[in-house]
Amino acid sequence: MTRIERSYPEPSINLETERYWQAAKDGVLLLKKCNDCGKTHFYPRAICPHCLGGDTEWYEASGRGRIYTYSVMRRAATPYAIAYVTLDEGVTMMTNIVECDLDGIEIGQEVEVTFRATEGDQALPVFRPVSS
Amino acid sequence: MSRACQAYIAGVYEHPTRKAVDKTIPQLHAEVALGALRDAGLTKDDVDGYFCAGDAPGLGGLSMAEYMGLDVIYTDTTDTGGSSYVVHVGHAVEAIAAGRCSVALVTLAGRPRAEGVTTLGVRDYGGALPDLGFEKPYGPAITNLYAMAAMRHMHEFGTTSEQLAWIKVAASHHAQHNEHAMLRDVVTVDDVVNSPMIADPLHRLDCCVISDGGGALVIVNPEIAKTVGDRCVKILGRGEAIKHLNAGQVDLTFTGAAKSGPIAFANAGVTPADIDYVSIYDSFTITVLETLEDLGFCEKGRGGTFVADGNLISGVGKLPFNSDGGGLCNNHPGNRGGMTKVIEATRQLRGEAHPAVQVADCTLALAHGTGGNIATRMGSATVILGSNDA
What we know:
The complex is a heterodimer.
Chain A: H1 18-25, E1 30-34, E2 40-41, E3 56-60, E4 64-73, E5 80-87, E6 92-97, E7 110-117, E8 123-129
Antiparallel strand pairs in A: 1-2, 1-3, 4-5, 4-7, 5-6, 7-8
Chain B: E1 8-14, H1 25-40, E2 49-51, H2 62-67, E3 74-76, H3 84-97, E4 103-110, H4 142-157, H5 161-175, H6 189-193, E5 197-199, E6 202-203, E7 213-220, H7 222-228, E8 233-243, H8 257-268, E9 277-280, H9 285-295, H10 303-307, H11 326-330, H12 338-350, E10 364-372, E11 378-386
Parallel strand pairs in B: 2-3, 2-4, 9-10
Antiparallel strand pairs in B: 1-7, 1-8, 4-7, 5-6, 8-11, 10-11
Helix pairs in contact in B: 5-9, 8-9
């Protein structure tokens, strides 16, 4: 698809999240799980929000999921689709849906991660429909 | 009957302005404070507790206490966004019951309209937020977040845009009688669903107004309430809760009202069936629909059917709501609608709402605030109020 997309603002990066954003530049979506309780959480933190355990570990996500909900922002200069995607790993993350007809997006639709350059030199995980 | 209570609302005031180009925010705080104190028949020298939230300039309430010349021994600056002032009502009851203060003043003021704020931009709460990097780049304007909650509710329960529109229609029926309301024209379901789409599925008329102004409350102990007289309103129950994205286990079909509501009802010893009038936070139509379900006025998922066909219109339906026109039509000062929810509930219980919207024999009312955002993290607060003879 050649639809014009809005430009993507720089993410705010801190000590806890710099590895996530470094991986994004390499085209990899990372998640964090807790070695104490075994659960994955989102957004990634040094401290597990399920059990407050401090032994959390990065791992590579499948990059696949389904649209939990979405909305097309019609009043923006360049309309765009914001969404929550539930990853196969069981956590739901805010994102944008790209490379599709904005009028054809559906809840439950299968999507996969792709990346967009931001206004600076970072990369942002976004999702596109899986072509059937 | 005469229900026991530990504190009363003795004074309320809603600033009549909706666009304050010629006033500062501290000035608006002082004007609403004076209005509520006059309504209570008290003066600023009677105030010994001051409550405000993030709209008040300065560190906590320090600068505003100084600006208004208050001499206080108790302060609470809990900020849960637009619900803060509903939270403050509950906290004031606890402070008064503990003997920490006897006359609590709560103020809100803002001028986003004069400052050109829109709901299309992305709101920035500061650089140290842990969630910031994972949300802001995706363009979470206010409207498209609430829209995602509405979209999911429609998907799971079959809720329709026409059903959501009935909430705006009801608010507009009330606003026509409010001389201060920003939008006084009565609208139809067709008007709402044919208004421009902002963020699917929310149309322009699903959104609240942006307005300047503010409001204030004066909350007093029972001894002072006796001297103020029978315009005092009983505070019978309060509950609050925070709901958030829960480590990525996201469910946008309910709000924090699912927790704050039952706590408030239990605290007051009443049930939803006992309530004569409700003030429900109405930043968007979907906010009202989910909140009514969560508070138990109908089953989860049945909100669309519940609000349809005028059921929220005073004198027409079973559950009159937001009889001032609410945030959807009347006023949403400083983008924080909790204050006006408590004020209109107080008017109803005093029998001082506009005659065209006054609920007959209004004895028990509920006011609910939703601060933050229902599609990310929110502070929810519920209070149950009673007339002086409740």
